[in-house]
Design goal:
Elements (H helix, E strand, L loop, with lengths): L10 E4 L10 E7 L13 H10 L5 E5 L3 E9 L2 E7 L13 H4 L3
Parallel strand pairs: 2-3
Antiparallel strand pairs: 1-2, 3-4, 4-5
Amino acid sequence: MIGRRLKRVDIVIFLHGMSHTQEYAYILAETNSENIKPSHKKNGIDQLKSYLSACPRARYGLWVGSERITIKVVKKEGRKEFVNIPDFPEAYKIEPPKVDDLSLS
């Protein structure tokens, strides 16, 4: 849920063993047709970033359209920042969530 609107991301990967609810979403993917650019007002990369912002435990995002963009969510001074990364880390290199990541704050 973003604000008062119910929005749905295309693909969600949840933390292992947790309920499949927004607060446990870990990786989000937004897919578009090949002619949609990241700068597109409605379906661009900002759409994915808004979904990542609304999910307290989300750590990675993937946007696919005219380009493929992978994002890592980094917490800085209590705020979420988005850093473009070349690709997802291999599964065994992804850091498990820390206790702070498991709280809803």
